[in-house]
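Minutes, project check-in
Item: structure for the 346-residue chain
Input as provided by the requester:
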Amino acid sequence: MKIYHIDRESWVKGLAASAEVYQLVGPVREKDDYDFKVLDKGQMPDLAGTDTRLSPKALVFPKSEVMMTFSTDPNDPDCNIMKPAKKEYPKRAVIGIRPYDARALQILKLNYDNGDYQDPYFLKAYEAITFVGLAVNRPASTDFSTSCGTGPFDEKGLDVLLVDAGEEGDFYAKILTDKGDAWAKAAGFSNEAGSDVATRIDAMKKAAEESITSKIAFDKIAKKTVLELFEADHWENTAFACINCGTCTYACPTCWCFDIQDENFGTQGVRIKNWDSCMTGLFTLHGSGHNPREHAYQRTRQRFMHKLKYFTDKYGEGIMCVGCGRCVRQCPANIDIREICETMNK
């Protein structure tokens, strides 16, 4: 395993060089928040900020994505025949993705790439990306990632792990995969760090993990039956403040719900996959008018049962949460998944 020491000047030059081979994506400041954007030529990712407002899941699971096209023109020989939309999947390097966000994409992959179904749109986008992660030296107070099987220095799902070297603008770059090595070569990084750097990174990892005081436990949830948790008497009180706005689902890096709609203008049409949310009343509304989740508390229950129970039972991969804390910070009603997890676990 190689570890490179990258100074500020080499970093700027390296990103410019890699941009000749890769489409670069990174966090960009927008007013008071950060979001992942395709970087313009010469634009640097802003790695000084905290988590982005939305996770980078839109890179592989876009908010709105055209899947198929069709024509309703009776004179068209292909009238009413769905055709795959012409799409390109450029070779990308995502710079500065947090380790728990990379782990979240692996959780999404369980849904979009399994023995029963493979989503070609997700998989082609995922395979085209080289993930260059950025370790979190100073986790936020809402970070509980170590309880969720990941953490501020987690390497799962990453091709490169960048670590703040503690010097002005310098990084250590830990090469984890062949894709990561190819990106480093394209960037021209070649200054291998000293033999003591691995030990230093381990110490930084330990310090970051120990600074996370927010913890959750879900060991008893897995042992309970679905109905024991589903029929528990706390759900109406738990969901009392929830306004079903869906902010938590859109901010969450592991939520994968979507809707498919056909839209047309004149004789040309498209089939589109859009982000959706189990927190809205429309999500489960039947064509008959019946809604099995008519009440708001039922929709809140669905979200947390899915995250903390259904997913656990189906995949055996822990809970459907990486502990990034976005939903905790952004909920307008101050609902905290950590407290709900504790209630369910008790």
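Outcome recorded: The chain has two domains: 3-54+86-210, 226-266+276-345.
No further action items on this chain.
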